């Protein structure tokens, strides 16, 4: 197995009960990220109760040097699954995307290029969906949540709910961890003194199945999360720039 220095990019995919979506998405990720080699794909199974574990085991046997699989004994939520993957990642850059096929991995190289072009003080390239394929209720809730969040946090991000992101692993590890962290990353990355860049990504229908995370959980519990992130930003102090001490 390659060591951390040999990996350029880690692609982290959180899944829960997505057995039918795993094989086609892994194939797309492998093809889309070929130019970013060497890279790895890390699937985090968030307590699936369907055939997801078997689908992942079969694919790992076919791609032993590419696919890594981690599993939560019970479901802990999408943010926890993302964090598990990032902690295990060996690349300096991490890409995330949802495991249902709605996020097209073909956009990962463009996000990585946008982050690199912005320089070392940029910490996150955030995808922003166009041509949304979600149902009407979900889109209305998302529009309301994004509007309220943007007015309160002023994070200059139209769509923080998009799972397509590329970020520096070291920057992520500086962020406070809590449930729904992945939905507030632009504001929290900026809080740490790093720039956030954006790129439009085309949404598409999920491959198979249905969403495993509740709409109302995201909307109403998100209000409490929003209040907490607002407090964290208000309590932020200047981020110190550390330089080496002069030797005598």
Strand elements, count = 7
CATH homologous group name: Spore Coat Polysaccharide Biosynthesis Protein SpsA, Chain A
CATH class: Alpha Beta
Structural class: alpha/beta
Main beta sheet, described? 7 strands, mixed
| CATH topology grouping | Spore Coat Polysaccharide Biosynthesis Protein SpsA, Chain A
Give the helices and strands, then pairings:
Elements: E1 9-15, H1 19-32, E2 39-46, H2 52-62, E3 67-72, H3 78-88, E4 93-96, H4 108-117, E5 122-130, H5 136-153, E6 165-168, H6 169-172, H7 185-191, E7 195-202, H8 215-234
Parallel strand pairs: 1-2, 1-4, 2-3, 5-7
Antiparallel strand pairs: 4-6, 5-6
Helix pairs in contact: 1-2, 5-8
Keywords: Cell membrane, Glycosyltransferase, Lipopolysaccharide biosynthesis, Membrane, Transferase, Transmembrane, Transmembrane helix
Organism: Methylobacterium tarhaniae
GO molecular function, one term: undecaprenyl-phosphate 4-deoxy-4-formamido-L-arabinose transferase activity
């Amino acid at each position: 197995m390659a060591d951390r220095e040999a990996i350029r990019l880690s692609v982290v995919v959180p899944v829960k009960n997505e057995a039918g979506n795993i094989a086609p998405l892994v194939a797309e990720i492998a093809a889309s990220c070929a130019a970013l080699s060497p890279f790895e794909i890390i699937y985090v199974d968030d307590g699936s109760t369907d055939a997801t574990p078997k689908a992942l085991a079969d694919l790992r046997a076919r791609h032993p040097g590419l696919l890594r699989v981690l599993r939560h004994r019970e479901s802990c939520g999408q943010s926890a699954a993302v964090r598990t993957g990032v902690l295990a990642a060996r690349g300096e850059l991490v890409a995330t995307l949802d495991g249902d096929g709605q996020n097209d991995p073909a956009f990962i190289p463009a996000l990585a290029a946008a982050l690199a072009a912005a320089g070392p003080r940029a910490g996150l390239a955030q995808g922003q969906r166009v041509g949304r394929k979600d149902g009407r209720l979900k889109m209305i809730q998302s529009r309301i949540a994004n509007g309220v969040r943007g007015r309160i946090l002023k994070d200059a991000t139209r769509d923080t709910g998009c799972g397509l992101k590329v970020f520096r692993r070291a920057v992520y590890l500086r962020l406070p961890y809590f449930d729904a962290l992945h939905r507030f990353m632009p504001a929290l990355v900026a809080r740490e003194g790093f720039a956030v860049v954006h790129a439009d990504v085309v949404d598409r229908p999920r491959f198979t199945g249905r969403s495993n995370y509740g709409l109302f959980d995201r909307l109403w519990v998100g209000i409490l999360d929003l209040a907490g992130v607002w407090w964290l930003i208000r309590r932020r102090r200047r981020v110190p720039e550390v330089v080496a001490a002069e030797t005598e």
